[in-house]
């Protein structure tokens, strides 16, 4: 993907603005808010080129553009700077789950809830034995992508489909990256296009594995969500010695 430095700069700004607003982004908006050093007309031309290359698309009812899954993957892989969790955040997360560390079921419920609260998403924890825990349904109902009842119904029905979740997390082959990103368009499931998911793995005691996921719109707050998932995975794996 041979983007020029200027196209890369514009794409980064557009994705960041889209994550923040959930609205199609216009060239004037980027010119005003980001120090891109070029005119709205130049930005508009570059956005047209990025659209032609498959990084942006134009919703029917808007003059603005939104990033495609290709752009979002590119942003996560090459442009994003992770926001490190503060020591206070790490301590707070650990305190939330510490008292339940000897009770696997209680720990899973508490930790899943803590993850949902921190990421403001729907969080799902699963084990390869078929245990499913989730929290944060109310979080996604505030997001414009989930005002579409078909999208919301599809996501919520997934929570009751143990075999589908097990297949998604444990039967597919993923890269060696510590956190995996999937967009609805990658899966090809009906009504799943606006949905984004980030997940990682942890040791669940013995030879068992667990998966820790957050589900929300495609514009998940990746710079915060990814390091949060990494920390929670480390926390889960630390605790697994209590579940042997």
From TrEMBL:
GO molecular function, one term: DNA binding
Alphabetized InterPro entries for the sequence: GAF-like_dom_sf, HrcA, HrcA_C, WH-like_DNA-bd_sf, WH_DNA-bd_sf, WHTH_HrcA_DNA-bd
Keyword presence, Transcription: yes
Winged helix-turn-helix transcription repressor HrcA DNA-binding domain ranges (all copies): 2-73
Keywords: Repressor, Stress response, Transcription, Transcription regulation
Domain Heat-inducible transcription repressor HrcA C-terminal: 80-226
GO biological process: negative regulation of DNA-templated transcription
Gene3D superfamilies, per database record: 3.30.450.40, Winged helix-like DNA-binding domain superfamily/Winged helix DNA-binding domain
Family note: Belongs to the HrcA family.
Function: Negative regulator of class I heat shock genes (grpE-dnaK-dnaJ and groELS operons). Prevents heat-shock induction of these operons.
PANTHER family: HEAT-INDUCIBLE TRANSCRIPTION REPRESSOR HRCA
The name this protein goes by in its record: Heat-inducible transcription repressor HrcA
């Amino acid at each position: 993907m041979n983007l020029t430095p200027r196209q890369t700069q514009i794409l980064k700004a557009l994705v960041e603005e889209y994550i923040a607003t959930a609205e199609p982004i216009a060239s004037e908006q980027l010119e005003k808010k980001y120090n891109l050093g070029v005119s709205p007309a130049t930005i508009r031309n570059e956005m047209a080129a990025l659209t032609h290359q498959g990084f942006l698309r134009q919703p029917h009812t808007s003059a603005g553009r939104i990033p495609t899954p290709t752009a979002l993957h590119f942003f996560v892989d090459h442009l994003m700077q992770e926001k490190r969790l503060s020591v206070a955040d790490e301590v707070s997360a650990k305190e939330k789950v510490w008292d339940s560390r000897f009770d696997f079921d209680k720990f899973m419920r508490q930790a899943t809830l803590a993850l949902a609260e921190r990421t403001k998403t729907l969080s799902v924890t699963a084990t390869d034995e078929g245990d499913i825990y989730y929290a944060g349904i109310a979080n996604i109902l505030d997001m414009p992508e989930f005002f579409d009842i078909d999208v919301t119904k599809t996501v919520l029905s997934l929570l009751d489909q143990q075999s589908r979740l097990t297949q998604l997390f444990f039967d597919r082959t993923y890269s060696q990256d510590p956190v995996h990103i999937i967009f609805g368009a990658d899966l090809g499931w009906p009504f799943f296009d606006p949905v984004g998911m980030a997940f990682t793995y942890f040791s669940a005691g013995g030879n068992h594995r667990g998966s820790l996921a957050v589900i929300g719109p495609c514009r998940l707050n990746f710079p915060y969500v990814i390091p949060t998932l990494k920390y929670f995975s480390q926390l889960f794996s630390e605790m697994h010695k209590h579940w042997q």
